[in-house]
Write a structure and sequence with these properties.
disordered N terminus; 411 residues; alpha/beta; disordered C terminus; GDSL esterase/lipase; 6-stranded mixed β-sheet; 14 helices
């Protein structure tokens, strides 16, 4: 792995942290908000494995047991033991779980579709799955997900007009009334890190990644989307799989045991993402853009797990071996078979209490952690503007008209 950031980059990212957390965290307490909650009839989601509900398993390879064990009691195309944040968002609106666009069996798109796939990036990845060259990334990067959405929008209405599956397609007006959710960006940087790219060069690539993201959001706006819910990326330096590629020098770890330079990179991306969202608001004042700081929520689970009822946050619940007892190894990952000391094993069991764990497989979160994250974003404390998902159809001017300034208590 290349030399990690210089002191100047670290100092710069310190200021990034201050800027990204500078907005006040209000507590929404007015009945005016409840009376004006949004009635989203559909969700269209774009992202990676953090919100994939069956895309990559339908297109490339199955996600095996014990994935899905906690809630679905069977593999359900999700990289977790149960539900994801996007599932809890759908539940909160009274909507069914999103069917993956790529899944042709038993799907129902009447209330939206999920274009996210595990391993997706914003930009075109250098190594595309399937590959025999070690790690690879999804061929369904964000531009492709946008193309799939555009095709879905037109074809779904053709089917509604004369197809026998009309009831499985969203109504035409749903496309302008839906919530468009995004959770993507993490893999753009893990791909570069794993390719041993100098971290200074990775920093330099961030504007291009952000521009590509903004282009896709603008395209959806131009197609009629008006409500956007955008998650930032999580603390890359806290995931067990990253430790395989990071130096073990104690000076590079923070008090939570996470790799500081990688988290600083994530925070730099998040700062630029937030700036892009601000520019999108200015460019499209008739739309509502909500930036959601899931980084801070996720990091709190690694820094103070006991405070929230969790334990061993850096250790994968489902995995095998690895370095420093993180229970993660590329030779035997969760749900797959592998060779360990010449012996074939199958990693088909998990820890005893997934409900008390943060990391499910060394890369993704447990259902319990996902539920915690959803509960936090539902308060509005981690959003800009400070609203929960059920208010995400309101533009900032509309929120002020509802009396936000007078009716919100600053915690």
């Amino acid at each position: 792995m290349q030399q990690l950031p210089s002191n100047s980059i670290s100092l710069f990212c310190f200021f990034c942290m201050l800027l990204s957390s500078s907005y006040a965290k209000p507590r929404i307490s007015s009945p005016a908000f409840a009376a004006n909650s949004c009635n989203f009839p559909a969700i269209f989601n774009f992202g990676d494995s953090n919100s994939d509900t069956g895309g990559i398993s339908a297109a490339l390879y199955p996600i095996n047991w014990p994935y899905g064990q906690t809630y679905f009691h069977m593999p359900a195309g999700r990289f977790s033991d149960g539900r994801l944040i996007i599932d809890f968002i759908a539940e909160s609106f009274g909507l069914p779980y999103l069917s993956a666009y790529l899944d042709s069996v038993g799907t129902n798109f009447s209330h939206g579709a999920n274009f996210a796939t595990g391993g997706s990036t914003i930009r075109v990845p250098d190594r595309i799955l399937p590959t025999n060259e070690g790690f690879g990334f999804s061929p369904f990067y964000l531009d492709i997900q946008l193309s799939q959405f555009m095709l879905f929008k037109s074809r779904s209405q053709m089917i509604r007009q004369r197809g026998i599956y009309a009831s499985l397609m969203p109504q035409e007006e749903y496309f302008s009334q839906a919530l468009y959710t995004f959770d993507i960006g993490q893999n753009d940087f893990t791909a570069d890190l794993f390719a041993d790219m100098p971290i200074e060069k990775i920093y330099a690539s961030v504007p291009d990644v952000i521009n590509s993201f903004a282009y896709n959001v603008k395209s959806i706006y131009n197609s009629g989307g008006r409500s956007f819910w955008i998650h930032n990326t999580g603390p890359l330096g806290c995931y067990a799989f990253v430790f395989l590629y990071s130096p073990s020098a104690p000076a590079l770890k923070d008090s939570a045991g996470c790799v500081k330079p990688y988290n600083e990179l994530a925070q730099y991306f998040n700062l630029k993402l937030k700036e892009a969202v601000v520019q999108l608001r200015k460019a499209f004042p008739s739309a509502a853009f909500t930036y959601v700081d899931v980084y801070s929520i996720k990091y709190s689970l690694f820094k103070e797990p006991e405070k929230y009822g969790f334990e061993l946050p850096l250790v994968a619940c489902c995995g095998y071996g690895g370095i420093d007892k993180y229970n993660f190894s590329l030779n035997a990952v969760c749900g797959a078979s592998g060779l360990v000391n010449g012996t074939k094993i199958v990693v088909d069991s998990s820890c005893d209490r997934p409900s008390a764990r943060v990391s499910w497989d060394g890369v993704h979160f447990t259902e319990a952690a996902n539920k915690f994250i959803f509960d936090q974003i539902s308060t509005g404390d981690f959003s800009d503007p400070p609203i929960p998902p059920n208010m995400a159809c309101h533009r900032e001017g509309q929120l002020k008209a509802l009396g936000q300034n007078a009716l919100v208590n600053i915690s």
